[in-house]
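User: Hey, my collaborator sent me this sequence without any context and asked if I could get a structure. I don't really work with proteins. Can you help?
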Amino acid sequence: MDGAGPTVESVLSDIFGFDGFRPMQADIVDAVVRGDDVLAILPTGGGKSLCYQLPALVRPGLTIVISPLIALMRDQVRALRENGVAAAAMTSANTEEENDAIFDALAEGRLKLLYMAPERLAAGGTERMIARAGVGLLAVDEAHCVSQWGHDFRPDYLRIGALRRALDAPLAAFTATADAETRAEIIERLFGSAGPTEFLGGFDRPNIHLAFAPKSGPRQQILRFAAARQGQSGIVYCGTRAKTETLAKALNDDGRRALAYHGGMEAGARREVERRFQADDGLIVVATVAFGMGIDKPDIRWVAHADLPKSIEAYYQEIGRAGRDGAPAETLTLYGADDIRFRRMQIDEGLAPPERRTADHGRLNALLGLAEAQVCRRQRLLAYFGEAREPCSHCDLCQNPPELFDGTEAVMKALSAVARTGEYFGAGHLTDILVGTATEKVAARGHDRLPTFGVGQDIDRRQWAAIFRQMMGADLVRPDPERHGALRMTESARPLLRGEASITLRKDTMERAARRPAAKALVSDEDAPLLSALKGRRRALAEAARVPAYVIFTDRTLIEMAETRPGTLDEIAGITGVGAKKLERYGATFLEVINGEIAAPVHPARRKLAGRESGALYDRLLAVQAELSRGEEGTDKLMSCSASLLARLASMARAERSDVDRLLGERLSERFGEAFTRILSEG
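Assistant: No problem. I've predicted the 3D structure and written it out in structure-token form, which is a compact way to encode the shape of the chain:
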């Protein structure tokens, strides 16, 4: 590609299959192609990798990419090779043969991109090898790993500045989340006094639906959320290792396919979970925050938090793993008073200096404010990152505005109970006092003789728990680690206690959530069977090539195919994500699915059902059959039903499993019986 002199536009279209850039990508690419030093802060899903991959194919010489996770590097290399790009990854997981092949390619000048783990920079001879290779660009992914205060700190990132000076090559650094303090540290350690050109991208991810809910039977809340998104890839984040395993088991028992992932697992077991998640269309990973950084799976359709994240930055980064292909994605974050208490104590009992603990409390406050927000949640989130916007009409609060009430009197009563008991007790004991429950503990301390005893009898215990949670969310009270979590008032509570201020609370979060989350379809009912068939073809191709499904085409590309139904190779070439190489390899086979040249709907048995309810059932049965033709894992022997058999099934609307089994026979029923019965029972 060096001699051909490709342009930015031709590489964008022919190699990556895009007809335009996402916001800010064009400016970043131009700066990197010019050879400027660049620091770009782009949201997860904002297209960071394209900002160094594309310049690497336009600029002369080799581009070195420093990236922290082996799985991420291998996935990106696979995707680049699928697009016809000479790329490789040098990591500790390489075999001797793989490294020899890389050395040969470097010596012959055949590589355009070489990914390296930061640990390789400490290996003897690495710098000399790189210097001989003719490096034209140095790119650093997840640049926040250079920050010694960050939870993702990687000591070997501190070597990158010296490597840049030795190579005398331009450096482009990228990260998704970095506040002003972290950005300053990145510049100091990677670029030195000659600062880079900075790009601070917008933080809005409009395709991601935001939702929070107070904990009310959290296991069932997560199970319901996952059940409404059957067959979609998702992540559930948990606060403890043990919880990942119990919740993964609960999901499996409920008929989902789920795997646990945490830092206490053996490295090989973690890699296997990462591999399966990358390759599988509908797997759920239940994980601690050990899972996710560098996961490059674009078709994650939802992210749920079973426990409150540690900060608003952590929340933003974790939900940002959903919907990276631009297609609709959903989030749900559960929170409760215990979460808030745990996060506060984590900060207070940490080893960070006082000023850092104060900043961490501020970040947690911002997240709690988002959880208890009373107006547009997206507006509140973006305001934290310095972006103003109108209400989005697409978050849970815009769609279902919360019921509010004047909580001043209730909060004053609660604060009075805190003050009159010397700030030595938690919410449970304070609630006993407020509702007038003379427990042994209350009586022993004489708290049944306080003026506040029984003043809150008009509010039940569950509602008082929600009021205390909202008070913690508003940072009016904090658990004191030196007093075993007893609630202490902050300075912001004093005006309320004195009657000099008022406060509005949410009434809806004081009631138990009983509604089942509604599933959101990726496409219309009319296009759903075609999308399912396209996914089935993609899965078969991916299994044959032993690559993740999204390497063939992303969900976003298949959704566009299902909605626009291209009829020719010229038309399919205009679909987002279909570059020249993929058009050559896969264009015809996906046109077969779209145009029905091979698909069963053109069979006379299907035509007889046209215009009837059973016709739609036939299409749904056919689509599910395509997904299960090689079993749930996609590795079993190919099986299918005849068109006439599908037509007979489609005429059995609301059939029982025994009826389906009798018609299919034992062999076909084992593969398709459960799925077919579910479709037929729904009518």
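In plain terms: The chain has four domains: 8-200, 208-399, 407-506, 528-682. You can pass these tokens on to your collaborator as they are.
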